[in-house]
Amino acid sequence: MTEQSSRRRPGLADRWPVAVALAVVAGAVTVIGLVNEQAELFGPAVATMAGIYLMAYALGRPWTAWLAFVILSVVVTGLHLLARLLALPVDPAVGMTLLLVPLWVWAATRRRSSPTRTFSVQTAGMMVFGAITLLTATTQPQVGTAVAGVGFLAHGIWDAYHYRVNLVVTRSWAQFCAIVDVGVGIALIIAAIG
To answer: What pTM was estimated for this model as a whole?
Structure first.
């Protein structure tokens, strides 16, 4: 058996993250087209994405990125609902950014700070994506929408890096997230310009 014949070509079952991501992008683009609060809705998602990586890193099991996605999506949705009901003392973007701190502390206390390089990368991601999220909440809505779009695109690069090094999250998550990030990022930037 030759080396080439022993390699299996990826089939449709291997591409499910792409199909799911495209459906999510279609839904997000629809929401972006229907609402005028793109920065308010999508700004907190930038910190949420960083939180997903931090949670999976703290747990030490890459597959838990999918679980973190569900948990943190519920959290950010709850923050949005509380903000709509005027029952939240802070903006959802601030709330999600603040949540990154205990996730980071959790990773550090679980002795996940080794290897140092990986922990440093996760720390840098928390700081950069947290800062982008706060910027979406503190600028004019059109600028905030563009900043959120840039945050999504930057996170797409983050996903590509993690896909390549195959650390922290599963490749299926990195692939799914990268497609969502690039698609939504472009849509937000177009909405900000338009």
So the answer is: 0.90
